[in-house]
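Posting this for the archive.
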Amino acid sequence: MEIRNSRKISQSQIAELMNMDASCYSRRESGEVYLKIEEWEKLAKILDVPLSEIYEADERQSNTCSDNASGNFIGTNFGPNNIYTISEMLLEMQQKHIETQQKYITKLEEENRELKRLLGNK
């Protein structure tokens, strides 16, 4: 990890601060074992960096989204090609909403032209 190396912190020191042995931390840093979000958070605190600067999602996990208030199922994504972060999902939803609004605006403009044409003939 570049940040760890730039701060001259050994894997053993990180492992100790994360309450694990050095070999366990080494496997996590090499990507053999994926870190849990709690471990990412702890590592960010140890390195004194924002979580977003070091976090890497585990592409082998599946994400299930549901609306807990209503119990409605929203979706499940499996594999690296279908995993979205919340911000990506919101951006995609926003883009679809904008496309729908643009289609509606185009339809209204066409209706206005037709109405003006009909009113101009009288």
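Residues 61-84 have pLDDT under 50 and may be disordered. The domain at 2-54 is CATH 1.10.260.40 (434 Repressor (Amino-terminal Domain)).
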